[in-house]
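Thread: assembly with ligand

MN 10:42: here's the input set. Chains plus the small molecule as SMILES. Want everything predicted jointly, not piecewise.
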Amino acid sequence: MVVQMMEQLTQEKTLDKDSEHEKKRNAEKNDKVIKLGVAFSTTMVPSSSALSKNRNRSAYSEVLERLKKDFYQRWDRKSVSSSSGLDEFLKIKTLGTGSFGRVILVKHKENSKDAYYAMKCIEKLRIMKLKQIEHTLYEKKISESIRFPFIISLDFAFKDNSYIYFVMPFINGGEMFTHLRRMRRFTEVLSRFYAAQVLLALEFLHYCDILYRDLKPENILIDHKGYLKIADLGFCKIVKGRTWTLCGTPEYIAPEIILSKGYGKAVDWWSYGVLLFEMNAGYPPFTSSDPMKVYERIITCRYKCPGTFSTELQDLIKNMLQLDLSRRFGNLRNGTQDMKNHRWFKDTDWLALYNRQIEPPFKPAIKSVADTSNFDPFDEETIRISDHDLYKDEFEKF
Ligand SMILES: Nc1ncnc2c1ncn2[C@@H]1O[C@H](COP(=O)(O)OP(=O)(O)O)[C@@H](O)[C@H]1O
Ligand SMILES: [Mg+2]
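BT 11:07: finished. C-alpha cells for the full assembly:
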C-alpha cells in the first residue's frame, strides 16, 4: 500500500514543479524594514532579562495579531489584474525557471533609474495542463496580501492572452541554495541567523492559517543586506484544518504527505527540520539518487547528523524531524515557543531580528542594484503571446 502510494508520489506532477532545481540537486548527487510601533520598543528593557523576554513575547503576540488583521483586510479586497502592463517593463535577464515559466529581471521604463523588479511569467496553458489554477490564484492573492519582513511581496500583477505576470521586488543577493553550495555548509552562527528568520516567517504564515509547503534553500532569497526573503508562494494555501494535496519537493516533504494522510501546519515544521539540517551539513538528511529511497528514508525517519553539529542543534533537529505529530516541535501546545525557547536559539533576540536590527553575519557580494552575478545563467526565450485570450473565463479572477 505504502509502496503503491510512493509510486504514485514519484509520478505526481506537482512534486516535479521545481524541475530545474531538481536537476540542480540531482546533478550534484551525481558528481523593507517594518518597524514596530513605539509601544513595542525594546530599548527600555535589556533584552537578556527574563522580564524583558516575557515583555518581548507579549509585544510580539500583539504584532502578530495586527499583521493577521492587516493580511485579512487586504485578502478581502477584490483585485483583478489589468490586462496590460508588459509593455511598461524592459526585460533584462532570466533569474530562474520553474515548471510553469520563468522569473525575469525587468526594469520599469518610466520610473527612476533603480526601478528593477523580478517578474514571474506563468503560462496559462501550463497552469491548466498541470491543474494548478487554484494554487496559482492562491499564490497571487496571498502574495498581494502579505507584508512581512522576511517574505516576498507583490508590487504588480497583470495578465495577457497567454500569460499571467507577478512583479516583485528584485532580491539581488541570490538564492540561499547558491550560497550554501558555494560555502559548502553554513556555520551554526549563520544557520541560526537564517533559521530564526524562517521561523518567524512560518510562525506568521501559520498565524494567518497559511500553509507554505515548499520550504527549501532554492526558494529562500538573500537581500543586499544579508537578510532573507522567502519567495515562491506557489504552494501557499489557507487551511484551517487539514488538506490532502500531494505537493512539495522530495527531500523536504513530510512523512504524513507521503503516506497520503490528511495533513496540516506541522508539514512546514518537518521541512524546517530538513532545512536546519541542510544548512548546517550542506546536504539534506534524507537523500538518494532514487526518489523511492528518499521517501522510504523519510517515512522511517532514517538520518544521521554529522559529528560537527553541536548537541543543541542535534536536539532541535531531533524535535523537528519527528514522525509522531504529538511530539513534533511547532505542533505542540506551546507552538513556536518550543523552538524559540530552545537552547540552540538562546542568544536570539526575536524582536530585534524582526526589526532587522541585527547585523547579518554574511553579506552577499553585490556590485549594483541590477547585479545578477549571484544567479545562475539561463538560456533566454522569447515570450510568445497568442492573438486570442486563452482560458479567459478560467483566469477571470486573476
Ligand atoms: N523576487 C525575486 N528576486 C530575485 N530572484 C527571484 C525572485 N523571485 C524568484 N526568483 C528566482 O526565480 C526562481 C524561481 O522562482 P519561484 O517563485 O521559486 O518559481 P517556481 O514556482 O517556478 O519555483 C527562484 O528560485 C529564484 O532564483
Ligand atoms: Mg521555487
